[in-house]
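#random but structural
TW: two for the price of one
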Amino acid sequence: MTQPAIALQSCKLFSASVAVWILMVAMNPALAETKLAASIPPADLIQPADLAASLQSSSVSRPLILQVGFRTMYDQSHIPGSDYAGPGNTPAGLQVLSDRVAALPKETAIVIYCGCCPWSHCPNIAVAYDALHELGFTNVKVLYIADNFGADWVDKGYPATKDKGLRTGTSH
């Protein structure tokens, strides 16, 4: 794929994300008061370059990677081997997340990510992070995606796929 085509795809992905968010807030104004991603402690954030490097390293054990955003985003592109377990801003999405991790040891390394929109506006990530901690998980990291998954992961050449992975949960 050419650079202009990749940039156009990334722009379309971001525009679609913003449109979905605006529609969701219009339909449910309570979402506008969603807990902010900035509430996540900096020590629990992982940068895209660091996660990509660890995924390519054979000396580092691979964490469970969960996408806690909207299914349309997961279907468009996601980290290979990640499971869809969202959206983190709905009770149904949080139930899917809870069900996905229910049988895991509490010290399991988990990385969650969304990438639906700019970090400061993400309705999913902080809620999912808090839910995992409330369930007793002690080794949870959050992939810091400043703008969106397309710009901060795909466009940087980090591994991405459209395979179906483990598709659980709601159809959002």
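TW: number two ↓
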Amino acid sequence: MTTELPLADGPPPRERADAARNRAKVLAAAERLFAEGDPTAVTMDDIARTAGIGRGTLYRRYPDRASIARALLDEHERALQERLLRGAPPLGPGGADGAAPPPRSTHPTPTTPPRAGTPTHPTQPPRTSGSPST
């Protein structure tokens, strides 16, 4: 038995401007504090104080440090995806005309047939001139 989930009607609700500013402050503060030392030693109070917001504002959106860490990871993943989809080469699509570059082959393309005495495969004996022996 499968259950179909309802689709949301329209785009997700837009984030209020003050909420977006607070989110950006929290994530910037947490990123800095996590990078400066031991992330497990950073408290929610440290993050709120560094972000310049109240504890209630912080806890309303993020119940714990793990939720902030997940939000940071999500921000970094979104930025990477954006660079992959729309950024400049080498990460993003490239070329002067904006077209995606052709995929690179990891295998050399032979331009001439192998010479006699050169194995065609590591497990095969070398080729010899003349007729095959049976």
